[in-house]
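Give me the fold.
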Amino acid sequence: MLLELVFFWNNDSYYLGVKTLEKTVSLLIFPLFILGNYKEINFYRLLKIYSISTTVIVLFFFLRFTIVYPEYFNKYLNGIHLWEMGYVFSKTLGMHAPALNMHMAFVSIINFYIFIKKENGATKYLYFFIFLTSIFLLLFINTRMAIMDTAIGCIIVVFYQLKNKENVAKLLINTSITVLFISLLSIVFLKKDSYLKEKFSSIAFAHMDKVGRLDEIDHPEVAVYSSLVTRVSIWKSALELSYKELPFGTGSSDGRNELVKYYKKTNQKFLTKYKFATHNQYIDFLLKFGFIGLIVTIGYIFSFLYFGLKTHEPILVAFFFLFFTSNLTDDFLIRFDGIVFSGFWLTIFACLYLQKMKINNLKNT
């Protein structure tokens, strides 16, 4: 929010500058109202409410999708046009697929954490079912980064549990059960969705020799629309333009327009046609605000890691990894939902930090 205010003068359109600024107001509101009442925040109860409600809501919309859009669902069930599946489903919720799956990745990590650590008896098995449901929805939405982040997030949770030596035998049993069921679910999913395997291998890394020369590829909108080569081509152009716009950048409301103009200037017809945004938060803020933008972005995102290390909570460290890597291939801090999602949880993590600091201070007195 301070970046937007300090660099407001650098916008060509003050109206668009105000629209960009208003997206960040939540970063003032959350600390003001939540941090002031940090003693009242029950972190683990909040995690449970968030994970269960998000899983149930997305599951409801999945069932709605099968009923209201049977032509799409039957098509995907028969293995047709699987590349569009997650994006079409997300659009029925009015969301961008990577943004929705970032939620599902965090929810899946929370469900796993609660299953192996927080619950016993029948409730434990209920959470295991909720966890498997969230994994199924994660695979259905089918974005590479979220699937990878979920796997690493669960590994982080297991690592912290082993580090704390909390009932290691029970942890290993629960983790083995989880791995077994996820493997079975993944095998079933891969049999129906052969595109998932291609997406992580041949499609993801195809045509890497064509960086900056996507127009040489036959029908690039089909062959490489969501491939790494397209992202790298965008990043290459954005970095070149960022260098030209130092030290203050293009202005927050002008970054994408200036980038599209640069595509056109460098005769990159495919990128110009689809007006691709930066798809990298670090480069995006470097382009818009110069070096200060890059430093602030890194500082903001690494705040999650700071609170995670200070509180020794794996969920916070897993969230950091999720948000850090997600912003390598997308730019969630230019989207209202990404700003609110990160701002809310950063504030909640700060509350947990303050609570633990208070407990430690009481122990030391």
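The chain has two domains: 1-40+224-365, 42-204.
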